[in-house]
Structure formats: structure tokens, C-alpha cells
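dude i think i finally got it to work??
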Amino acid sequence: MSSSTDGTICFGVMIDDETELPWDESGDWEVWWRKVNGYKPPFEIFDKNGNYLDGKEPAEGKVDEYFDSQEKWDKKNPFPVELVNACSDSAPVWILAVKESCLTASRGFPEVFSPLKLMATPKEVEDLMAFCKKYKIKTKGKTVWYLSSYWET
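look at this
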């Protein structure tokens, strides 16, 4: 078994420990984001359990077409915040951050950056907090700079 560690610096706000995130039901923020924004795939290939319809793999190229459609939609409709796990895969502690403020380095791959370029505009902070309000995400504390580590086992 191997493990990986990352360090992240970002400007954001901690999510309250008791908060049930709007994407918890699906278990995947990308699936949730597509759903609340009306994404419809060009055709269906999976049943509600994630298995191929009728248990048969679609014709060649259809699976790629299906996922390409999602990728194109995601590029046009990006998730407006960065979800940062500030602990580990088995015990997540979440920060919602201004996307443009995030910088991550993986163990063994240091990143060069200028602290003078670290910034978050008032508009970006306003948008972050509006996202939290719109989707009823309870936060704790103020928006601040965080330096965190993430351990994946």
C-alpha cells in the first residue's frame, strides 16, 4: 500500500463540520453540479445503478461520445469554487476556496510561486460566499488564507 501527500495554499472558508453538503446524496460534486444546472447527456448508457443499460456495452465510440459531452459541458460550466480537502481521504476536513487562489504541490514536486501574487479579489470572495448562501453550506470563521496538507492512503 502506498500513500501520497499534497500541500495546498488557498483563500477560502472552512465548512462547518455538521454541514451536510448538497452533493453528499450523490457522493460526487460533479454529478450534483451538472444536475442542478440542467445538464442532460445526449443519450443514456447507464441505468440508475451505474451499470450499462440492459447489461450491454454500447457500440464502439458511444462511451467516449457520452463522456466527451460531459467534459465539454464542464468546460463551459465550471464549478465556481475549489473544494479543498485539508486533511485526508479517510477523514476529510473541507475548505471552499476561491478557485484562482489555490496552489497545490505534491510530495516530490515542489512548485515555484511568488507570495506577492497570492490574492483574492473582493468580487471573488463575494462570489464564494454567495455560492455558500445559495446552496445552504454552513461555514465557520472568516475567509482567510489556509496552508493545508492532504494525505491519501
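The helical segments are 29-36, 62-76, 122-134.
im so relieved honestly
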